[in-house]
Amino acid sequence: MANLRAGLIGAGMMGRNHARVLASLDGVDLVGIVDPNGDQHGVAGGRPVFNTVEELVEHGIDYAMVAVPTAFHLPVGMALAEAGVHAIIEKPLAENVESATALAEAFSSRGLIGGVGHIERYNPALQQARKRIEAGDLGDVYQVATRRQGPFPGRIADVGVVMDLATHDIDLTAWVTQQTYVEIFAQTGHRSGRDHEDLVAATGRLSNGTVVNHLVNWLSPLKERTTIITGEKGTFVADTLTADLTFFENGKVQTTWDELRQFRGVSEGNVIRFAIPKPEPLRVEHEQFRNAVLGQPCDIVTLDQGLATVRTAFRCIESGRGGNANR
């Protein structure tokens, strides 16, 4: 069977990482790149570099990776859909709900496979957490709290911290719990002089009653990527920077000292940091989308799921502006 022919649209910061993976992906040939600015990072490796999506389509591709700024997701995605080309689009799916809806409908109506590059889903720590939650290791999930903070990335100019960073947490929380957001409330701040928000504190509720909290900012001199999932049997702490998953188990040894038992509440049990395989999340993401295009079993972030994330993100932004909870 011939390899799939893949194209890359956008050869910037994320594009060069996608180019590296696509160039070495089993069953796939990276056959061309689109970037009006040329191959500034030297990722083409002798492959043709085009100025337009139409030129890439004419070159012949089975699917494309879209790694352009969020503002261009809609025109690029629509051009691919109209050409009958499958596509995986970097997160967030689009810059607003209307554009995300248009993209989801365009691919669906043509029977095309579309995916969104929410890479955190493929982090080994969260993959393991999802499996263990499904297996009942936590019992009922009571709360998911995420912290995602770090310095401002100068390359991001078209969206704020909610669309750029918080969409990671919105997507991974819905995915790892297999629930949907039913309510979200947020406070946002503008501290760096930009048009878009640079910090957000959000709290909400999922479809099975799980309470969620997201703290996200571009204002911290430290970098943190932590997801804490608390259930009836204990707590998972996933550090997606190190891909470590630690389980803090509720104690099984009864405390007979009454005053101490009343003071401590849930008792401390075993603490386990799991030894888990740690494949590169970006490679896993591409492998899963390749499998989807081939009609094989896969786990991709669908355009409908990407749309749901954009909707929740915009509810956060609107709530931050108006101070009201959004259902």
UniProtKB/TrEMBL annotation:
Would you tell me the protein name for this molecule? Putative dehydrogenase
Q: Which SUPFAM superfamilies match?
A: Glyceraldehyde-3-phosphate dehydrogenase-like, C-terminal domain, NAD(P)-binding Rossmann-fold domains
Q: Which InterPro entries match?
A: Gfo/Idh/MocA-like_OxRdtase_N, Gfo/Idh/MocA_Oxidoreductases, GFO_IDH_MocA-like_dom, NAD(P)-bd_dom_sf
Q: Ranges for the GFO/IDH/MocA-like oxidoreductase domain? A: 127-236
What keywords is this UniProt entry annotated with? NAD
Per UniProt, residues of the Gfo/Idh/MocA-like oxidoreductase N-terminal domain are 5-118
GO MF, one term, reads: nucleotide binding
